[in-house]
Amino acid sequence: MSVNTTVDHCKTPNQSTYEVLSWLIMGEFVLGLPLNLSVLYIFIFRYKFWKKKSIFLFNIVVADFLMMVCLPAKAYDYQHGQRRSPKPLACKLMHFMLFLNRGASITFLIILSIDRYFNVVHLGRRNFVKVLKKTPQISILIWVLLLTLTIPTMVNSFECCNSHGRAIETPSYDVTDTLREIVYFTQILIPFTVLLFCTVRIVNRLRRKTVGEKTKLRRAVLVVISVVVVFALCFLPSTIARAVLLAVRLQDWQNAENVVVQVYDSLMVLSFMDCLLDPLVYCFCNSGFKDAYISTFCPTFLQKKLLKTDFGLGTTTTTTTTIITTTNSGNRTVCLKKK
């Protein structure tokens, strides 16, 4: 395998591009940090997620918050002409955190979609996800499993300091590198396939249901569609770009790689938008969280309007009007009319 050892792959190929990306990252941080802090506050102090059986949602919040606090370091590297930190420990730690928290966010989002799938398509059957939601130990087990899968990012350096085609690879190095890429792609492609399956089945079920059952189904459709949107905007573009980058790198096309790597890093910046879009998933998943958030942070003049708005969640307030009619014989008939 030929390798161009004269090229410093850790340095930015075009500093102007990375200056812009650094400001975009800081914009995501400035918007995302207060948003995620406010969501954490609602889940812990107002919504009390442990009583509402929303442990999986809370885990997504934690994963998003941990990813958000990593962004200033990423912006700092870009500002100083580095794609990744030149310090090996910092480089490994940053990739470990990003891989772990992105994997956690994806895992718990998919579990929520599977839960909706069983509640709608297999209503009446035993839903194993409901059992999992009642046991916090399952969430801990998932984090431990994700930690295990993320360890390869710490064994050898990543991106600027390796990867396939970057150095003369020993067998152990090659196995670690290959495992890392397998984890990266399966982390996206398998969940997205599961998500598409759940979405298609739920939408088909909605079409066959009667009018009286459509409110619950509409909510389920909104949940899975919101997760599809998060995947389509945040994760799929960077995954495709990484596949192209690996192909170019293995062919040792340095000029092409300088272009593709900028596209890949730009799409990775786009993937951080996940931390800003996930609160929409929380609202679609649970109207109680939406109501708690609106009543806490929205101005008074907006609260009444927003709380009465359905958003397709079936949360519109229902009022009952009583109509009393009296017949000639003196009997009274009471009619109830819902609005």
Automatic annotation (TrEMBL):
Residues 35-282 form the G-protein coupled receptors family 1 profile domain. Keywords: G-protein coupled receptor, Membrane, Receptor, Transducer, Transmembrane, Transmembrane helix. InterPro entries: GPCR_Rhodpsn, GPCR_Rhodpsn_7TM, HCARs. The chain crosses the membrane at residues 20-44, 56-76, 96-118, 138-155, 182-200, 221-247. One of its GO terms (cellular component) is membrane. It is found in: Membrane. It comes from the Eukaryota. One of its GO terms (molecular function) is G protein-coupled receptor activity. Pfam families: 7tm_1. The keyword S-adenosyl-L-methionine does not apply. It is a multi-pass membrane protein. PANTHER family: 12-(S)-HYDROXY-5,8,10,14-EICOSATETRAENOIC ACID RECEPTOR, HYDROXYCARBOXYLIC ACID RECEPTOR 2. Belongs to the G-protein coupled receptor 1 family. This is G-protein coupled receptors family 1 profile domain-containing protein. It comes from Eleginops maclovinus.
